[in-house]
Amino acid sequence: MPTFNEISKAYADELRAALNAEFTKKASVVAEDVRGSTTASVLKKIANELENTWQIDGKPLTEEQKDLITDGITESLGIPDPDAIKRVVKSASNDAYMQMVQQISD
């Protein structure tokens, strides 16, 4: 299994690529832009994999281990709110995705 830092960096790179492809040229982002976007899909994928894919010794990740990964993603993306990715991944809602996209684009 890769390290938590390696997982965080890979997720941050994937998320950054989706954000850059979809939202960097827009003056503003609205909810309709986020719904069904690649960025939302990447965030849903991260949430799903943290819950169902990654394991240590055959056991699912603990909340603390998931937090280490989401904290690493947040740091890699330079998001000022340290809990932004954590909230988005846990809530997996379009409103949370929208708020995160706006934070990154500011």
C-alpha-based Rg, rounded: 13 Å
Question: Based on helices, strands and strand pairing, what is the structural class?
Answer: mainly alpha
Please tally the helical runs, counting DSSP H or I stretches of 4 or more residues.
6
Spatial strand order of the main sheet: 1-2
What does this structure look like?
The chain is mainly α. The protein has six helices and two strands. A two-stranded antiparallel sheet has the order 1-2. A hairpin with a 2-residue loop joins β1 and β2 (59-60). α1 (4-23) packs across α4 (63-77) and α4 packs across α5 (84-91). The chain is globular, with a radius of gyration of 13 Å. The termini are far apart. The model has no long low-confidence stretch (mean pLDDT 82).
